[in-house]
Amino acid sequence: MYAIIESGGKQYRVAEGDVIRCDLVAGEIGSDVTFDRVVLAGAGESVKVGSPTLEGASVSGTVLRQAKDKKILVFRYKPKKRVRKLNGHRQPYAEVKITKITLP
Q1: Distance between CA atoms of 5 and 81, rounded to whole angstroms?
Q2: Does the N terminus or the C terminus of the chain have fewer Cβ atoms within 10 A?
Q3: What DSSP string runs through 7-61?
Q4: 46 contacts: CB under 8 Å, gap ≥ 6
Q5: Backbone dihedral region of 13: left (phi > 0), alpha (psi from -120 to 50 degrees) or beta?
Q6: Which residue, 30, 37, 29, is CA-closest to 7?
């Protein structure tokens, strides 16, 4: 069985036992999180599509890690004007292990 969930404006295809890397979620390491926005769920040949989400469906998981991604450098400049700006950014993320998919 698999499901497509929406978290942080992005969609993830998950199955039980998968580890996903999504935007930072509220909760400490080892705590349980629930994703209520299930867009699609399928098992074999049967597929249920929500409009926009499936009512009563949820996906549960456990937070394994919360960290920051690698640093990216953002460099902006205007040619011939001696204007240069260098910024760094590290995106926070959470690794979540999917434990259970519940369908209505």
Answers
A1: 47
A2: C
A3: ETTEEEEEETT-EEEEE--SS-TT-EEEE--EEEEEETTEEEE-SSS-TT-EEEE
A4: none
A5: beta
A6: 37
DSSP 8-state assignment for residue 82: T
pTM of the shown model: 0.85
Under the phi-then-psi rule, with left for phi > 0, alpha for psi from -120 to 50, and beta for the rest, what region is 26? beta
For 23-70, how does the pLDDT look when each residue is reduced to its tens digit (9 = 90+)?
999 889 999 999 999 999 998 899 999 999 999 999 999 999 999 999
Residue showing tokens 């920051």: 68
Tokens 């404006």 locate to 9
